[in-house]
Write a structure and sequence with these properties.
The complex is a heterodimer. By secondary structure, chain A is α/β, with parallel strands linked by helices. Chain A has 2 domains: about 90 residues, Beta Barrel (Elongation Factor Tu (Ef-tu), domain 3); about 170 residues, Rossmann fold (3-Layer(aba) Sandwich), CATH 3.40.50.80. By secondary structure, chain B is α+β, with helices and mostly antiparallel strands. Chain B contains 13 helices and 15 strands. In chain B, the strands form 4 sheets. Chain B has a 7-stranded mixed β-sheet, sandwiched between helices. The chains are: A alpha/beta, B alpha+beta. The interface between A and B is large, with 39 and 54 residues. Bound molecules: flavin-adenine dinucleotide and iron/sulfur cluster (2 copies). Flavin-adenine dinucleotide sits at the interface of chains A and B.
Chain lengths: ~270, ~375
């Protein structure tokens, strides 16, 4: 139950208030894409944060944190050389093996790109395992684009990267609107596609509807849920979502398991 | 199973033996007008001849008429505290962190688990302990503190020879007869005006202890009294949970009654405080003034608190009706999916201690009748 102490090697400021922490993890920190760690900032507390690195990369573990409150703020204030506590990896990840040989469709909203990044890294490294790979990524404005340089790398590695923003700024040449606008027939084969969604709940709900409309089977859509979490291991009761404990049964769920629950107000 | 009879002096010797074996004995004691659970060493500290008279929103401690001229020690039933307060205490230090010379060190809490004996655990509360075992120690990640305390526990259970108006353990299949999960089991007998206890051992530790007590074999009438009292207790139970409660809830998650309930419920969290199976907790950090030490604490929490469902955008269960629905559906429906057992034993505490007298058995009945 007690966290391991890891040292911060590097802090990458992605945008105002969002930092990617590169932590030194002796040996290989094994995890499944979609899993999370509990990160402990001394004197502030412990919160769940997705693992966002490359699962095959040795010696480090990566997290992207947005400062929204006490603990996340303390995490974004860490500097190289400082130490923090890490427990994990926890939870159920993306069922990537099910995409083998078929198309892979990813839809991310805002920081929801973080837990999908390990999938993109794997898709890039083992490109031939999948058919077409498409990323739909929506964010508030061009300044809030995450992993800017990597977006271009993914594009260069035969991954179709489609980006949209809610609000354009001068000079923005790309799409403006919601992420579902990007999803058009012909981008992927709905019969073989596995779709992975992560972002705000409304964004995931509408994305799932749009993908179903395009012919993706409900059983091939998976999404990552977010609930209040204090322990990460099924003991504190906070992450209940009806019959599910998000930290144990999720955070990644098949749409079929959570769709009926998402329709119930204030569950 | 071997059954022996001891008298009140034998019960005192049982306490003495437990104390000798370095157990801290916790049992029912009257404090501030209620029966609480507290350390005790003498039979004279037990709530002799007192009953906890309970109804929705009400609890009173009253002297009873003697039973066959005897003032029984265990007719009181259940008070606001449960054994959970000892096994999964409302506040617990999980780890200490230290920051020195730029390095962080995290130490697990070193404290030894106490060696405790619980005296007078009723069938409903044994069921509650079994439920918490599944929740806190039955999954992939056990709660280390709970497990340590649990492993050092000695349980002296007691069969209920009368029930409160709020009890419904019989309909939950949890009582009134104790079946398993104890070291020793007592049934208080008063037949013929003689005050004595039928004792049964449920473990080797229990059998060893029982052998040290002055005892005799039971007479047929004593075994008959045990059967009769348990049958009367079960048959006299006025409350019950309607059968099929889980499916009634599953079918009515959006019933207008939740909103009506939200108007009565104060979201005070009393029900979650007195319930012997509730386990929700939040973690909080305590820091020293010099900034070199911090403690990570676990505190009891309740799904009636707004912060329970908070994620940065706001509180997910904003309305009180939604919080009440969380509590009731967790107990009677979703607990099963999460832990393979219902989360309610029928102890009735939440009925008695609800300041506005909400009765979960009644709510389930209403939801079942007034189908949405
Ligand atoms: C599975 C999972 C993965 C996540 N991955 C990331 C990530 O990669 N990057 C990132 O920046 N954020 C992520 N989050 C959200 C992050 O955990 C919250 O932003 C964080 O807990 C806020 O804590 P705070 O103390 O800074 O804020 P406060 O608003 O002060 O929160 C108080 C407490 O409420 C709880 N809490 C509040 N918001 C959340 C939340 N959204 N989710 C869970 N618990 C919450 C925490 O226990 C927190 O300590 C993830 C959440 C989950 C459940
Ligand atoms: S829900 Fe009520 S009756 Fe059931 S175990 Fe908890 S306190 Fe007892
Ligand atoms: S969610 Fe509510 S009812 Fe369930 S264990 Fe937690 S406090 Fe008790």
């Amino acid at each position: 139950m007690v966290p391991r102490v890891l040292r911060v090697r590097e802090c990458i400021e992605e945008m105002e208030g969002v930092v990617t922490l590169v932590l030194e993890a002796p040996g290989h920190f094994a995890f499944e894409p979609g899993q999370f760690n509990m990160l402990y900032a001394f004197g502030a507390g412990e919160v769940p944060i997705s693992i966002t690195g490359d699962p095959t990369e040795s010696g480090v573990v990566r997290h992207t944190v947005r400062s929204v409150g006490q603990v996340s703020h303390a995490l974004t204030r860490l500097r190289p050389g400082m130490e923090l506590g890490v427990r994990g990896p926890f939870g159920r990840g993306w069922p990537l093996e099910r995409a083998e040989g078929g198309d892979l469709v990813l839809a991310a909203g805002g920081l929801g790109l973080a837990p999908l990044r390990p999938v993109l890294r794997q898709a890039m490294a083992q490109r031939s395992r999948f058919g077409r790979v498409v990323l739909y990524y929506g964010t508030r404005s061009p300044e809030t684009l995450l992993y800017r340089e990597e977006l271009a790398q993914w594009q260069g590695a035969d991954i179709e990267v489609q980006v949209t923003v809610d609000r354009a700024t001068p000079g923005w040449q790309g799409h403006v609107g919601v992420v579902t606008d990007l999803m058009q027939p012909g981008h992927f084969d709905p019969g073989s596609a596995l779709a992975l969604l992560c972002g705000p709940e409304v964004m995931m709900r509408f994305s799932a509807l749009r993908l179903q409309e395009l012919g993706v089977a409900t059983g091939c859509i998976h999404l990552s849920m977010e609930r209040n979490m204090h322990c990460g291991v099924g003991l504190c009761g906070h992450c209940q979502f009806g019959p599910k404990l998000v930290c144990q049964d999720g955070p990644v769920f098949p749409l079929e398991e959570v769709e009926p629950l998402m329709k119930i107000r204030e569950l | 199973m071997e059954q022996l009879v001891i008298d009140v002096e034998g019960l005192q010797q049982l306490l003495d033996r437990l104390v000798q074996q370095v157990y801290e004995v916790i049992g029912p004691r009257v404090r501030h007008g209620v029966v609480t659970l507290a350390p005790l060493r003498s039979v004279s500290e037990l709530p002799a001849g007192l009953v906890e008279v309970q109804a929705p929103g009400s609890y009173r401690l009253e002297p009873m008429e003697t039973r066959e001229g005897v003032r029984p020690l265990f007719v009181h039933r259940v008070g606001p505290e449960s054994w959970r307060h000892f096994l999964h205490p409302p506040a617990e230090l999980l780890w200490c962190a230290e920051r020195k010379d730029g390095h962080l060190r995290i130490h697990p809490r070193a404290a030894e688990a106490p060696r405790r004996a619980f005296l007078g655990v009723r069938a409903c509360d044994l069921a509650a302990i079994a439920i918490q075992d599944r929740v806190l120690a039955g999954g992939a990640h056990a709660d280390a503190g709970y497990l340590a305390r649990r492993n050092r526990l000695f349980i002296v259970a007691v069969n209920c020879t009368s029930a409160a108006d709020t009890c419904f353990c019989h309909s939950m299949g949890c009582g009134p007869e104790v079946k398993e999960g104890f070291d020793l089991l007592l049934t208080e007998l008063t037949g013929g005006g003689e005050h004595r206890f039928l004792v049964e051992a449920g473990s080797d530790a229990g059998a060893n202890l029982l052998r040290m007590l002055p005892s005799r074999l039971p007479e047929r009438g004593e075994l008959e009294e045990r059967r009769r009292r348990l049958r009367q207790t079960a048959e006299g139970m006025k409350r019950s949970l309607p059968p099929g409660a889980a499916s009634v809830l599953a079918r009515n998650l959006e019933h207008p009654r939740w909103q009506a309930l939200g108007e009565r419920c104060l979201a005070c969290g009393n029900c979650t405080s007195v319930c012997p199976t509730c386990f929700c907790s939040r973690m909080a950090e305590k820091t020293g003034l010099d900034g070199t030490r911090a403690e990570h604490w676990r505190y009891q929490d309740s799904c009636f608190n707004a912060a329970h469902s908070y994620i940065h955008g706001g509180v997910l269960r904003h309305e009180r009706g939604s919080r009440y629905r969380q509590w009731l559906t967790h107990k009677l429906l979703h607990w099963q999916a999460q832990f393979g057992t219902p989360g309610c034993t029928g102890c009735g505490r939440c009925i008695a201690w609800c300041p506005v007298g909400i009765d979960l058995t009644e709510e389930v009945r209403m939801l079942g009748e007034v189908a949405a």
